[in-house]
């Protein structure tokens, strides 16, 4: 006799195998329910104004905590991780202008959405009528919380998801669907007494372990903030002009990072040889062509030049 539990296990096994076929590195599944532990943390973070000018973080509070308010009849959250750690890196010396590794190639929104669409299609072809929605960091979904709930890692002191096998250089995406599945359990926290990320942050953005003050993060200043960068952080960016990888680079778990296999994330030849002079003299034409499908287009040329001028100004 085939039980409901057996069917859920079989379906979950199929979904995880299919996720790997689609190119994802890890896949976990959790029950679509209210995030009780995250609710007070999110409320406190917002009340402290640690989201800065990211006003959208305060929107849709209820939906952010309960996927059933985003997808009618939601039963499961399927979380996936896609590695973006590069085989070839841009120079990150003391004098080099730096960009976050996640921005080397094609904007991850395009890549993950395509892979998730393929995964959802595969689920529907195998199982039948399944209603679900794809999410890639563009709706009020707490990606890291769901990935941790589904056993893909734990939330580190730098607020990133850490995976024992490959560290933290991952993009996260979800499918929230109305399918009953077998659910994975969370894993324990393996940060221990380590405080390397806390100690290394030059702007003291990690206000306390596991709490990042988004309004003090270099990534916030160089990407999210549209106004002038405050003078009190002058000289503290260590030449990061788009994003920042410091808290990930110093994390001991990232010694297990492996180069990704997603061609779209590879460093393009046109960017590989970029010098400080190239960054400072970049024209609108070069910017538009080089970053046409890149995350860097978010800042526009004006924002990128603002960042470059800020880090190159005398301290």
Automatic annotation (TrEMBL):
HAMAP family: QueG. Transmembrane segments: none annotated. This is Epoxyqueuosine reductase. Catalyzes the conversion of epoxyqueuosine (oQ) to queuosine (Q), which is a hypermodified base found in the wobble positions of tRNA(Asp), tRNA(Asn), tRNA(His) and tRNA(Tyr). It comes from Dyadobacter sediminis. The gene is queG. [4Fe-4S] cluster 1 binds at residues 191, 194, 197, 251. GO terms for biological process: tRNA queuosine(34) biosynthetic process. It is found in: Cytoplasm.
């Amino acid at each position: 006799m085939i039980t409901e539990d057996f069917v859920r296990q079989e379906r979950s096994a199929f979904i995880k195998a299919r996720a790997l076929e689609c190119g994802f590195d890890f896949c976990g599944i959790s029950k679509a329910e209210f995030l009780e532990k995250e609710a007070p943390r999110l409320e406190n973070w917002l009340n402290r104004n640690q989201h800065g000018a990211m006003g959208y973080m305060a929107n849709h509070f209820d939906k952010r905590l309960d996927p059933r308010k985003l997808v009618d009849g939601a039963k499961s959250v399927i979380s996936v991780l896609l590695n973006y750690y590069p085989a070839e890196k841009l120079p990150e010396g003391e004098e080099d202008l730096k960009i976050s590794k996640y921005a080397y190639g094609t904007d991850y929104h395009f890549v993950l959405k395509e892979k998730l669409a393929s995964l959802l299609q595969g689920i529907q072809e195998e199982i039948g009528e399944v209603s679900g929605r794809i999410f890639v960091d563009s709706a009020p979904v707490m990606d890291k919380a769901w990935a941790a709930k589904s056993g893909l890692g734990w939330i580190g002191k730098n607020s990133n998801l850490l995976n024992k096998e490959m560290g933290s250089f991952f993009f996260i995406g979800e499918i929230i669907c109305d399918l009953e599945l077998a659910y994975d359990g969370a894993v324990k926290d393996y940060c221990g007494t380590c405080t390397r990320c806390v100690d290394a942050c030059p702007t003291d953005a990690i206000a306390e372990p596991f709490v990042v003050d988004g309004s003090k993060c270099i990534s916030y200043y160089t990407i999210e903030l549209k106004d002038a960068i405050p003078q009190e952080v002058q000289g503290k960016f260590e030449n990061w002009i788009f994003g920042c990888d410091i808290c990930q680079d110093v994390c001991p778990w990232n010694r297990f990072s492996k180069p990704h296999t997603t061609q779209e994330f590879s460093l393009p030849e046109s960017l590989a040889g970029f010098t400080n002079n190239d960054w400072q003299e970049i024209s609108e034409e070069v910017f538009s062509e080089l970053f046409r499908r890149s995350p860097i287009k978010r800042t526009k040329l004006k924002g990128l030049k603002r960042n470059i001028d800020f880090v190159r100004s005398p301290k």
